[in-house]
User: What shape does this take?
Amino acid sequence: MIWWDELPEQSLLTQLWGHIRKYGFTAIAGWLAAESDEGVRERIARLLERFS
Assistant: This one.
């Protein structure tokens, strides 16, 4: 289980890398945002800004 609210952003990217390569970062981030709480959505938004 990945602890989205506790891991540093770089660790989140490392955990997600295989899925990101297969499905694309935007698809994974969208799924996580729909499934997660507000704090996680904010962290995902910051990661998306970094890659867009």
Summary: The first helix runs from residue 9 to 23.
